[in-house]
Structures are given as structure tokens and as C-alpha cells.
Amino acid sequence: MELNQIQSTLRESGLDGWLFYDHHRRDPIAYRILKINPPMCTRRWYYLIPAEGVPAKLIHRVERGNLAGLPGAEIQYSSWEEQHGGLKKILEGKKRIAMQYSPLNDIPYVGLVDAGTIELVKSFGVEVVSSADLVQLFEARWSEDALASHLQAGKVVHAAVRAGFAAIREAVSSGNGITEYDVHQAMLRVFEGGGVVTDEGPVAAVNRNTANPHYMPTRDRSLPVGVNDFVLLDVWGKMDKPGSVYFDITWTCFVGVEVPRRYAEVFETVRQARDAAVDFVQAAMQSGRTIYGYEVDDVARGIINRRGYGHCFVHRTGHSIGEDVHANGANIDNFETRDTRQIIPRTCFSIEPGIYLPEFGVRSEVNVFVEESSARVTGEIQQAIVPILAAAY
Length: 393
What we know:
Elements: H1 3-12, E1 17-22, H2 28-34, E2 45-50, E3 56-60, E4 73-77, H3 80-90, E5 96-99, H4 115-122, E6 127-130, H5 132-140, H6 144-174, H7 180-194, E7 196-197, E8 203-206, E9 230-239, E10 247-254, H8 261-287, H9 293-306, E11 347-351, E12 354-356, E13 361-363, E14 366-370, E15 375-377, E16 386-387
Parallel strand pairs: 1-5, 3-4, 5-6, 10-16
Antiparallel strand pairs: 1-2, 2-3, 7-9, 8-9, 9-10, 11-14, 12-13, 14-15
């Protein structure tokens, strides 16, 4: 746990403390930031890191070891009266503290503490503010090892995309049948060979299924892929070792020699939106200008709106990437929520605008890693729909 850094940040933020709380492992953020992994969490525990002074623990006598190894004075409780009294004691003198809470649940990744516990803390005269910015600082920034794992996974993920396209080309060219699920399995074999794991996916979608942003083929629900079909592959994974972070991309292809104009026109709008968002982030980092997640979303969405497809762009422009594919840094979002978190160095997020029509949908996704005075796309960038039956493929 980075105690000194957390306390310094609390003072800079005008906060009296950061209160961690959990019951039945509802808050994975707490365990990762505090770097604890107790065997059983059937009773409530609290851990207060004050801006100044020594931390405080409030733990149940049945599970006295849940916060073992963490510094701080310890209070034990058994009854609810003791719990309330102990919480009041560790909060004494505190006016403004952070918790894993999000006003109006704007950032659900951080809104993990139940409403009743927030009410209990407020009953002691304490103002509760969101820990979202703190979480990003201490959870979302990557180490050099994390970045290296991302780049390593990226090579395998891109190889999986190429394998998916190749499997379609070979099956169609030879007259053999192939389904979305078959393509999904072909990509998974590349993952297995490359030491990459994934929580779900990868996605292979054809024609109308590409218009469903979260479509997932299964053995029992899978369309065939053939000549003149439009295919979208959404592929994400990370190296199978502790501390690894995800790589997450989306590519599209056409099963033919020449991509029809309609597909190409929609892709071009999506590409321009994607690249404008990336350019905006890069320019801001190079100039030292502070930007926020919602602003990047506005750039991409503005282009799609001006092309008349605004009603077809039904999700945020991007999400934070970390040990979870949807992680706890700033999202690129002024649509599903208004993400006012700052884009900060050593964080990574996707840029993935999409246009979803009734008959097909186009999305193009890259990952952007931000450094102190620069930002870069960490993988290959698709510039046009791939015609996988063309001789040049």
C-alpha cells in the first residue's frame, strides 16, 4: 500500500481521509489498493487512511485478521452498537472523506459502497465525496511491467484477428462451411498458443449481428459466414500472469474482392471520428493542456453527429483499460455518463466509435496509452475494411 502517497494526495485534495469498507468482497478496488487478500469476509470491516496521522481499523472479532499487515490502531466490535460506536470514533474530527461512491452513480465502476453505509457515515456529520479521482491515481496508472504486458498481449490479439480473417478466407475459398462460432474458436486457439487469457470473447459477428455492440456467438447461436458477408471481430485479452493488463481492439472485413461503397462510407465516418479523438488527446498531452474523458467523447461524437449518424452511435467512445478490460480510470464518455475525470499520464483507454444500422454495424477500436507529454496508439490501426478475398490480402 502506498500510504505516504495516499496521504499526500488527500492533503492536496482537501480531504480529511479515505474510508475503505467492505462486506462479502463487494469492493475489489479496496483489496487491490490496500494489497490485502483475507480468506473470508463475512463481516464488515472499515479502514480509514487519514490525511494526517495513523490509519485506523474497525474489524469484527470473528474475523480479526482481515486487515492484518496494514498499519494502524485497531478497534474490534461484535454487536451493531459497537460497530456504530467504533465507526464514530475513527471518524471523529473528520469533516470530508472519500469513499467508493459516485453521486447519482455516474461512475458505476466506483459506486461500490451501499447507500445504507453512506447514510451511516453521514449520520456522524461527515461529508462523503467520490473517491473516483483517487482510485484512478492509485489503481489505473500502469507500471512499466504492465505496459510491457499490454504490448506483448497486443501481438497475440492482432495475430488472433489475422487468424480469424484467414479462417474465413480458407473456408470460403475451399467451399467449406464456417460459422461465427468457428471463427471465435480459431481466435481462441491463437490465445491459448500465445499465453493469453480473456474474461469472455472474442467476438465474431456477421451482417445483422455486427449491429449488436455486445453480440457473442455460441455453439448453439451462430450464423454462417459466406461470400459477400460483412464481419466484425472484437478481440480482447491479457497475458496469463499476475499484474497483466488487457489489449482490446475491433477490426472489420468484407468476404469479397471489393468492399461495397455503403460499408466503406460508414467505416470512413467511424475512422475519422476515431482518429479525431486520438489526435485531440495527442495534441493536449503535447501542449500540456488538461483534458477530461467527456471532452474526448465530444470530439468523436461530434463528427458522427455531423454526418447524420448520431442516433446510430449508441455507446460511449471508449473505456479505461487495466487488469480488467473495463477498468477504473477515466472513460471516454459524455453520453452514457459525463465522465469528468482527468486524462492522466500512465493510463490507457480505448477509442472505439461505432455506427449501428439495422442491417450492419461498424466499429473501429484502438488503445491509447498516455504519458507525461505524449499519447500513442499501442497497436496496428485499421485504415479501411479488409477485403479478405482480394488477391492482395
